[in-house]
Design a protein that fits this description.
five-stranded parallel β-sheet, globular, alpha/beta, about 325 residues, binds manganese (II) ion, single chain, 11 strands, six-stranded mixed β-sheet, 13 helices
Length: about 325
Protein backbone atom coordinates (compact mmCIF):
# COMPACT_ATOMS: atom_id res chain seq x y z
CA UNK A 1 0.00 0.00 0.00
CA UNK A 2 1.35 3.37 -1.02
CA UNK A 3 1.50 5.96 1.76
CA UNK A 4 -0.82 8.91 1.14
CA UNK A 5 1.75 11.42 2.26
CA UNK A 6 5.40 10.74 1.45
CA UNK A 7 6.49 12.84 4.39
CA UNK A 8 5.03 10.22 6.68
CA UNK A 9 7.29 7.80 4.89
CA UNK A 10 10.47 9.69 5.63
CA UNK A 11 10.47 11.82 8.73
CA UNK A 12 14.26 11.81 8.76
CA UNK A 13 14.47 13.43 5.35
CA UNK A 14 12.00 16.09 6.44
CA UNK A 15 14.00 16.77 9.58
CA UNK A 16 17.20 17.07 7.56
CA UNK A 17 15.60 19.52 5.15
CA UNK A 18 14.28 21.61 8.02
CA UNK A 19 17.65 21.61 9.79
CA UNK A 20 19.52 22.63 6.65
CA UNK A 21 17.13 25.53 6.08
CA UNK A 22 17.25 26.63 9.72
CA UNK A 23 21.05 26.57 9.70
CA UNK A 24 21.45 28.55 6.47
CA UNK A 25 22.17 32.27 6.32
CA UNK A 26 21.81 33.00 2.64
CA UNK A 27 19.87 30.61 0.39
CA UNK A 28 19.90 30.41 -3.41
CA UNK A 29 16.52 29.11 -4.61
CA UNK A 30 16.55 27.93 -8.21
CA UNK A 31 14.11 26.55 -10.73
CA UNK A 32 14.58 25.21 -14.25
CA UNK A 33 15.34 26.96 -17.52
CA UNK A 34 12.30 27.64 -19.70
CA UNK A 35 10.16 27.90 -16.56
CA UNK A 36 6.54 26.70 -16.54
CA UNK A 37 3.76 27.46 -14.06
CA UNK A 38 4.93 24.90 -11.52
CA UNK A 39 8.52 26.20 -11.72
CA UNK A 40 7.51 29.82 -11.11
CA UNK A 41 4.88 28.87 -8.51
CA UNK A 42 7.44 26.73 -6.64
CA UNK A 43 10.11 29.41 -6.69
CA UNK A 44 7.78 32.17 -5.49
CA UNK A 45 6.01 30.14 -2.82
CA UNK A 46 9.33 28.96 -1.41
CA UNK A 47 10.49 32.58 -1.50
CA UNK A 48 7.49 33.75 0.53
CA UNK A 49 7.80 30.86 2.98
CA UNK A 50 11.51 31.47 3.59
CA UNK A 51 10.89 35.18 4.00
CA UNK A 52 8.37 34.45 6.74
CA UNK A 53 11.15 32.43 8.45
CA UNK A 54 13.39 35.54 8.26
CA UNK A 55 15.70 33.79 5.84
CA UNK A 56 17.76 35.80 3.39
CA UNK A 57 17.16 34.25 -0.02
CA UNK A 58 17.66 34.94 -3.69
CA UNK A 59 15.15 33.58 -6.20
CA UNK A 60 16.85 32.66 -9.46
CA UNK A 61 15.79 31.49 -12.89
CA UNK A 62 18.10 31.66 -15.88
CA UNK A 63 15.21 32.58 -18.20
CA UNK A 64 12.77 35.44 -17.61
CA UNK A 65 9.35 34.87 -16.05
CA UNK A 66 6.81 34.25 -18.86
CA UNK A 67 4.34 37.14 -19.10
CA UNK A 68 1.44 34.89 -18.19
CA UNK A 69 2.82 34.59 -14.64
CA UNK A 70 3.37 38.28 -13.94
CA UNK A 71 0.14 38.20 -11.92
CA UNK A 72 1.71 35.99 -9.26
CA UNK A 73 2.70 37.89 -6.11
CA UNK A 74 6.46 38.47 -6.03
CA UNK A 75 7.07 37.59 -9.70
CA UNK A 76 9.24 40.72 -10.10
CA UNK A 77 11.59 39.39 -7.42
CA UNK A 78 12.93 36.57 -9.60
CA UNK A 79 16.46 37.38 -10.71
CA UNK A 80 18.37 36.29 -13.78
CA UNK A 81 21.66 37.23 -12.15
CA UNK A 82 23.03 36.00 -8.85
CA UNK A 83 26.09 36.69 -6.80
CA UNK A 84 27.38 34.61 -3.89
CA UNK A 85 28.06 33.81 -1.19
CA UNK A 86 25.37 31.22 -0.53
CA UNK A 87 25.48 28.51 2.10
CA UNK A 88 22.51 26.52 0.78
CA UNK A 89 20.93 25.88 -2.61
CA UNK A 90 17.34 24.70 -3.01
CA UNK A 91 16.50 23.33 -6.45
CA UNK A 92 12.80 23.16 -7.31
CA UNK A 93 11.11 21.19 -10.12
CA UNK A 94 14.49 20.30 -11.73
CA UNK A 95 14.87 16.67 -12.83
CA UNK A 96 18.65 17.00 -13.27
CA UNK A 97 21.44 19.38 -12.32
CA UNK A 98 21.60 20.64 -15.92
CA UNK A 99 17.99 21.85 -15.71
CA UNK A 100 19.09 24.72 -13.45
CA UNK A 101 21.06 26.08 -16.41
CA UNK A 102 24.67 26.97 -17.15
CA UNK A 103 24.58 30.17 -15.10
CA UNK A 104 23.96 28.19 -11.91
CA UNK A 105 26.73 25.71 -12.75
CA UNK A 106 29.17 28.63 -13.17
CA UNK A 107 27.97 30.28 -9.99
CA UNK A 108 28.27 27.09 -7.95
CA UNK A 109 31.76 26.42 -9.34
CA UNK A 110 32.85 29.90 -8.23
CA UNK A 111 31.62 29.49 -4.64
CA UNK A 112 34.24 28.56 -2.04
CA UNK A 113 33.88 25.01 -0.75
CA UNK A 114 30.94 22.79 -1.59
CA UNK A 115 27.49 24.17 -0.93
CA UNK A 116 24.79 21.69 0.11
CA UNK A 117 21.88 21.36 -2.30
CA UNK A 118 18.31 20.33 -1.47
CA UNK A 119 16.63 18.79 -4.51
CA UNK A 120 12.83 18.92 -4.35
CA UNK A 121 11.12 17.54 -7.45
CA UNK A 122 8.34 15.31 -8.79
CA UNK A 123 9.81 14.07 -12.10
CA UNK A 124 10.16 10.29 -12.30
CA UNK A 125 13.40 10.80 -14.26
CA UNK A 126 15.09 12.80 -11.44
CA UNK A 127 18.80 11.98 -11.18
CA UNK A 128 19.10 12.59 -7.40
CA UNK A 129 21.83 15.20 -7.88
CA UNK A 130 21.38 16.88 -4.48
CA UNK A 131 22.90 16.52 -1.04
CA UNK A 132 19.36 15.85 0.11
CA UNK A 133 16.93 14.49 -2.47
CA UNK A 134 13.19 14.59 -1.95
CA UNK A 135 11.71 13.18 -5.13
CA UNK A 136 8.06 12.20 -5.25
CA UNK A 137 6.77 11.14 -8.68
CA UNK A 138 3.31 10.67 -7.15
CA UNK A 139 2.99 14.41 -6.54
CA UNK A 140 1.25 16.12 -9.47
CA UNK A 141 3.38 19.25 -9.04
CA UNK A 142 6.40 20.40 -7.09
CA UNK A 143 4.13 22.95 -5.41
CA UNK A 144 2.14 20.03 -3.97
CA UNK A 145 5.32 18.89 -2.24
CA UNK A 146 6.11 22.41 -1.00
CA UNK A 147 2.59 22.59 0.45
CA UNK A 148 3.18 19.34 2.31
CA UNK A 149 6.55 20.62 3.54
CA UNK A 150 4.96 23.84 4.81
CA UNK A 151 2.17 21.91 6.52
CA UNK A 152 4.59 19.52 8.19
CA UNK A 153 6.76 22.38 9.45
CA UNK A 154 3.74 24.42 10.56
CA UNK A 155 4.68 27.28 8.26
CA UNK A 156 1.78 29.67 7.75
CA UNK A 157 -0.07 29.57 4.42
CA UNK A 158 -0.70 33.23 3.60
CA UNK A 159 -2.78 34.20 0.52
CA UNK A 160 0.35 34.93 -1.60
CA UNK A 161 1.86 31.55 -0.73
CA UNK A 162 -1.45 29.77 -1.44
CA UNK A 163 -1.85 31.55 -4.80
CA UNK A 164 1.65 30.61 -5.98
CA UNK A 165 1.20 27.00 -4.83
CA UNK A 166 -2.18 26.69 -6.56
CA UNK A 167 -0.59 28.01 -9.77
CA UNK A 168 1.69 24.95 -9.85
CA UNK A 169 -1.16 22.52 -9.24
CA UNK A 170 -3.37 24.07 -11.91
CA UNK A 171 -0.73 24.37 -14.63
CA UNK A 172 0.88 20.94 -14.20
CA UNK A 173 -2.54 19.23 -14.15
CA UNK A 174 -4.11 21.53 -16.78
CA UNK A 175 -6.77 22.39 -14.24
CA UNK A 176 -7.09 18.94 -12.66
CA UNK A 177 -7.53 17.06 -15.92
CA UNK A 178 -4.42 14.84 -16.01
CA UNK A 179 -4.51 11.14 -15.15
CA UNK A 180 -2.39 11.57 -12.01
CA UNK A 181 -4.95 13.79 -10.23
CA UNK A 182 -6.32 12.04 -7.17
CA UNK A 183 -8.02 12.91 -3.91
CA UNK A 184 -4.69 14.10 -2.50
CA UNK A 185 -4.50 16.73 -5.27
CA UNK A 186 -8.05 17.91 -4.69
CA UNK A 187 -7.46 18.08 -0.94
CA UNK A 188 -4.38 20.21 -1.58
CA UNK A 189 -6.39 22.57 -3.81
CA UNK A 190 -9.16 22.79 -1.21
CA UNK A 191 -6.62 23.66 1.45
CA UNK A 192 -5.10 26.38 -0.75
CA UNK A 193 -8.52 27.89 -1.50
CA UNK A 194 -9.26 27.98 2.21
CA UNK A 195 -5.93 29.77 2.67
CA UNK A 196 -6.99 32.52 0.27
CA UNK A 197 -6.14 31.41 -3.28
CA UNK A 198 -8.73 31.97 -6.01
CA UNK A 199 -9.28 28.95 -8.26
CA UNK A 200 -10.99 30.95 -11.00
CA UNK A 201 -8.41 33.75 -10.99
CA UNK A 202 -5.42 31.45 -11.23
CA UNK A 203 -7.09 29.27 -13.89
CA UNK A 204 -7.98 32.31 -15.99
CA UNK A 205 -4.59 33.95 -15.70
CA UNK A 206 -2.39 30.89 -16.00
CA UNK A 207 -4.30 28.81 -18.54
CA UNK A 208 -6.79 30.91 -20.48
CA UNK A 209 -5.31 34.33 -21.14
CA UNK A 210 -2.76 34.61 -23.94
CA UNK A 211 -1.53 37.17 -26.45
CA UNK A 212 -2.95 37.42 -29.98
CA UNK A 213 0.57 36.93 -31.34
CA UNK A 214 0.89 33.59 -29.58
CA UNK A 215 -2.42 32.39 -31.10
CA UNK A 216 -1.24 33.48 -34.57
CA UNK A 217 1.93 31.48 -33.95
CA UNK A 218 -0.23 28.48 -33.02
CA UNK A 219 -2.02 28.95 -36.36
CA UNK A 220 1.26 28.69 -38.24
CA UNK A 221 2.37 25.68 -36.22
CA UNK A 222 -0.96 23.94 -36.82
CA UNK A 223 -0.60 24.43 -40.59
CA UNK A 224 2.70 22.57 -40.40
CA UNK A 225 1.33 19.54 -38.54
CA UNK A 226 2.37 16.15 -39.85
CA UNK A 227 1.06 12.73 -38.81
CA UNK A 228 2.89 9.49 -39.39
CA UNK A 229 1.98 6.17 -37.79
CA UNK A 230 0.55 7.71 -34.63
CA UNK A 231 3.22 10.37 -34.21
CA UNK A 232 1.97 13.92 -34.70
CA UNK A 233 4.55 16.69 -34.88
CA UNK A 234 5.12 20.29 -35.80
CA UNK A 235 7.63 23.07 -35.31
CA UNK A 236 7.96 26.67 -34.17
CA UNK A 237 10.89 28.46 -35.80
CA UNK A 238 12.45 31.83 -35.03
CA UNK A 239 11.32 32.98 -38.51
CA UNK A 240 7.67 32.13 -37.66
CA UNK A 241 8.08 34.01 -34.40
CA UNK A 242 9.36 37.12 -36.16
CA UNK A 243 6.46 36.99 -38.60
CA UNK A 244 3.89 37.28 -35.80
CA UNK A 245 6.02 39.63 -33.71
CA UNK A 246 6.53 37.37 -30.71
CA UNK A 247 10.01 37.74 -29.24
CA UNK A 248 11.92 35.56 -26.82
CA UNK A 249 11.38 31.88 -26.20
CA UNK A 250 8.11 32.24 -24.37
CA UNK A 251 5.60 29.89 -25.94
CA UNK A 252 3.54 27.19 -24.32
CA UNK A 253 0.34 25.23 -24.37
CA UNK A 254 0.46 24.00 -27.96
CA UNK A 255 1.74 20.51 -27.18
CA UNK A 256 -0.93 20.13 -24.48
CA UNK A 257 -3.70 21.15 -26.86
CA UNK A 258 -2.45 18.86 -29.62
CA UNK A 259 -2.31 15.92 -27.21
CA UNK A 260 -6.11 15.77 -27.36
CA UNK A 261 -6.07 14.81 -31.05
CA UNK A 262 -7.48 11.27 -31.36
CA UNK A 263 -5.19 10.15 -34.16
CA UNK A 264 -2.07 10.96 -32.13
CA UNK A 265 -0.38 8.43 -29.84
CA UNK A 266 2.56 10.77 -29.38
CA UNK A 267 2.83 14.51 -29.99
CA UNK A 268 6.13 16.30 -30.56
CA UNK A 269 6.59 20.07 -30.82
CA UNK A 270 10.02 21.26 -31.96
CA UNK A 271 10.80 24.85 -30.96
CA UNK A 272 13.84 26.73 -32.20
CA UNK A 273 15.19 28.73 -29.26
CA UNK A 274 17.00 32.08 -29.51
CA UNK A 275 20.34 30.46 -28.67
CA UNK A 276 19.97 28.06 -31.60
CA UNK A 277 19.16 24.92 -29.62
CA UNK A 278 15.94 22.99 -30.24
CA UNK A 279 13.45 22.46 -27.44
CA UNK A 280 11.45 19.27 -27.88
CA UNK A 281 8.10 19.02 -26.09
CA UNK A 282 6.62 15.51 -25.98
CA UNK A 283 3.15 14.29 -25.01
CA UNK A 284 1.76 10.75 -24.84
CA UNK A 285 -1.80 9.51 -25.11
CA UNK A 286 -3.10 7.78 -21.95
CA UNK A 287 -1.40 4.44 -21.43
CA UNK A 288 1.72 5.41 -23.40
CA UNK A 289 4.98 6.86 -22.07
CA UNK A 290 7.32 9.54 -23.44
CA UNK A 291 9.49 9.98 -20.34
CA UNK A 292 11.80 7.10 -21.26
CA UNK A 293 12.33 8.35 -24.81
CA UNK A 294 13.04 11.84 -23.42
CA UNK A 295 15.53 10.37 -20.94
CA UNK A 296 17.37 8.53 -23.74
CA UNK A 297 17.55 11.83 -25.64
CA UNK A 298 19.18 13.52 -22.64
CA UNK A 299 16.02 15.09 -21.18
CA UNK A 300 13.36 13.87 -18.82
CA UNK A 301 9.86 14.40 -17.49
CA UNK A 302 6.67 12.53 -16.74
CA UNK A 303 5.16 9.51 -18.55
CA UNK A 304 2.51 11.73 -20.19
CA UNK A 305 4.56 14.92 -20.68
CA UNK A 306 8.32 15.10 -21.14
CA UNK A 307 10.96 16.85 -23.19
CA UNK A 308 14.57 17.60 -23.97
CA UNK A 309 16.75 20.30 -25.48
CA UNK A 310 19.07 19.32 -28.31
CA UNK A 311 21.83 20.95 -30.33
CA UNK A 312 21.74 20.84 -34.10
CA UNK A 313 19.64 22.08 -36.98
CA UNK A 314 15.89 21.59 -36.90
CA UNK A 315 15.75 18.88 -39.57
CA UNK A 316 18.56 16.84 -38.00
CA UNK A 317 17.00 17.06 -34.54
CA UNK A 318 13.60 16.05 -35.92
CA UNK A 319 15.06 12.96 -37.61
CA UNK A 320 16.85 11.92 -34.44
CA UNK A 321 13.86 12.44 -32.16
CA UNK A 322 11.30 10.90 -34.52
CA UNK A 323 13.36 7.74 -34.94
CA UNK A 324 13.69 7.44 -31.14
CA UNK A 325 9.92 7.94 -30.80
CA UNK A 326 9.15 5.33 -33.48
CA UNK A 327 11.37 2.84 -31.70
CA UNK A 328 9.83 3.60 -28.31
CA UNK A 329 6.28 3.41 -29.68
CA UNK A 330 6.97 0.07 -31.40
CA UNK A 331 8.31 -1.36 -28.11
CA UNK A 332 5.29 -0.16 -26.21
CA UNK A 333 2.86 -1.51 -28.82
CA UNK A 334 4.62 -4.90 -28.67
CA UNK A 335 4.18 -5.02 -24.90
CA UNK A 336 0.52 -3.93 -24.98
CA UNK A 337 -1.97 -6.76 -24.45
MN1 LIG B 1 6.40 20.41 -12.34
Amino acid sequence: LRPKNPLEMDRNLLRSIRNRIQGANRILVVTHVGPDGDAIGSLLSMGWLLRAQDKERLLFCQDPVPEGYYFLPGSDEIKQEAEGPFDLIISLDCSGHYRMGEEVSKLVAALPGSVPLINIDHHITNTHFGTLNWVDPNAVATTQMILELAESLNWELTPPVATCLLNGLITDTRSFRTANVDSRTIRAALHLMEAGASLSDVTQQALERRSLASVLLWGQAIERLRLDDGILWTEVTQAMRQQVGLGGNDFSGLANSLSGIREADIVAVFTELENGTIDVGLRAAPGLDVAQAALRLGGGGHPQAAGCTLDGDLVGVQERVLSELRRSLAEQRDKAP
